[in-house]
């Protein structure tokens, strides 16, 4: 077996042209694990409503954060992939779930290098149906249709790994060092509450009141995005020795009218500003790479909301991006994967 690794992120439009944004959003939102309603309803909602208005709006937002080299999410993911490759002795490729850098191209690139076993590594610390699961399903479809000889090994969500928490917490701690702040908000991308129920393998044990997410040992946690976000916050806070009441968790980027995970980030920023918080710091640990949702929604819109209600200082903490320690961490996991398999082979 010749091994290789495929890093996978979400993807971005090819450019900030509304036509490209429409193409990208069409693919993204027609995914049944993102907008999880029957095909006829999804088609009506996405093609009949959302794609008529949102691409123009989103294109303007993308234009505010776009870099000369392209989409920050893509550029930062590419930089990460290069660093991981430099630190690894097997091929490491990068693909996106949506857009032009397809999973098929990523798998083909590895196959062309002689790879026969691919470890997929979704660049999402927490599991969600709309992220990790849709990558897994798409990879399975592609393998069945185009790469029947390829063996696939998956990487589980890494939100609770000590080595990941160390790297994440230290990156946040670096930014907090010497910073005078009243509150640190951990803002995660939201999902509709319905997604949490659908992923509940214990069939209804998740009561959506947050308490189940803190219950010890529940088998449901493996697929509960909310649990995984809450625990990421708890572990980072513990590592950094943050005092209770100086930090909290919220969820951003909701779309549509269904209830999404709460509390909502925009309302939390507003409420805190109104309650007298003057200096706020925000970390966004659901995102490995800075992107539209961190650079525009948080760093621009979030800051505006905070200032409107009397807040003074708003500090956004960068994602892990291509931080050396993060690239090294992924390289270590790749190494571990190989060592484990050598041991198995010897035994
Ligand atoms: C943490 C990972 C993410 C989850 C979970 C997630 C769920 C989810 N997202 C939408 C709708 C949109 N998301 C958009 C952008 C976007 N989403 C993520 C990550 C997660 N999404 C990232 C990294 C980005 C940024 C992409 C970039 O190019 O920078 C967008 C597009 C932008 C916009 O028009 O606002 C939409 C739409 C849903 C419906 C959903 C869960 C069901
Ligand atoms: Fe999203
Ligand atoms: Fe839960």
TrEMBL record:
Pathway(s): Porphyrin-containing compound metabolism; protoheme biosynthesis; protoheme from protoporphyrin-IX: step 1/1
Encoding gene, per UniProt annotation: hemH
Name the record gives this protein: Ferrochelatase
Function: Catalyzes the ferrous insertion into protoporphyrin IX.
Lineage, top ranks: Bacteria, Pseudomonadati, Bacteroidota, Flavobacteriia, Flavobacteriales
Enzyme class: lyase
Recorded catalytic activity of this chain's protein: Fe-coproporphyrin III + 2 H(+) = coproporphyrin III + Fe(2+); heme b + 2 H(+) = protoporphyrin IX + Fe(2+)
Pfam families, alphabetized: Ferrochelatase (PF00762)
Subcellular location: Cytoplasm
GO terms for biological process, alphabetical: heme biosynthetic process
Keywords: Cytoplasm, Heme biosynthesis, Iron, Lyase, Metal-binding, Porphyrin biosynthesis
Record-level GO cellular component terms: cytoplasm
Family: Belongs to the ferrochelatase family.
């Amino acid at each position: 077996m010749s091994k290789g690794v495929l890093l996978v992120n979400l993807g971005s439009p090819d450019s900030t042209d509304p036509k490209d944004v429409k193409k990208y959003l069409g693919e993204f939102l027609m995914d049944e694990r993102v907008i999880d309603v029957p095909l006829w309803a999804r088609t009506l909602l996405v093609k009949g409503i959302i794609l008529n208005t949102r691409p123009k709006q989103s294109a303007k937002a993308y234009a505010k954060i776009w870099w000369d080299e392209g989409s920050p999410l893509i550029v930062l993911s590419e930089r990460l992939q290069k660093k991981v490759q430099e630190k690894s002795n097997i091929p490491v490729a990068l693909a996106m779930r949506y857009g032009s850098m397809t999973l098929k191209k990523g798998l083909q690139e590895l196959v062309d290098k002689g790879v026969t076993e691919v470890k997929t590594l979704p660049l999402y610390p927490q599991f969600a149906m709309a992220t990790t699961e849709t990558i897994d399903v798409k990879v399975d479809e592609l393998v069945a249709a185009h790469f029947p000889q390829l063996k696939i090994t998956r990487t589980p969500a890494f939100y609770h790994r000590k080595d990941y928490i160390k790297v994440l917490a230290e990156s946040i701690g670096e930014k907090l060092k010497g910073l005078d702040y009243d509150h640190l908000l951990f803002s995660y991308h939201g999902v509709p509450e319905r997604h949490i129920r659908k992923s509940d393998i214990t069939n209804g044990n998740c009561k959506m009141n947050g308490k189940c997410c803190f219950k010890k040992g529940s088998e449901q946690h493996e697929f509960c995005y909310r649990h995984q976000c809450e625990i990421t916050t708890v572990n980072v806070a513990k590592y950094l020795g943050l005092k209770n009441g100086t930090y909290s968790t919220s969820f951003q980027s909701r779309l549509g009218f269904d209830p999404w995970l709460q509390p909502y980030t925009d309302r939390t920023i507003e409420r805190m500003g109104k309650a007298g918080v003057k200096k706020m710091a925000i970390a966004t640990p659901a995102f490995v790479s800075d992107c539209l949702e961190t650079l525009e929604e948080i760093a621009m819109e979030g800051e505006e909301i905070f200032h409107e209600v009397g807040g003074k200082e708003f500090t956004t903490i960068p994602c892990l991006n291509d931080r050396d320690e993060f690239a090294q961490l992924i390289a270590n996991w790749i190494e571990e994967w190989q060592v484990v398999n050598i041991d198995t082979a010897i035994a």
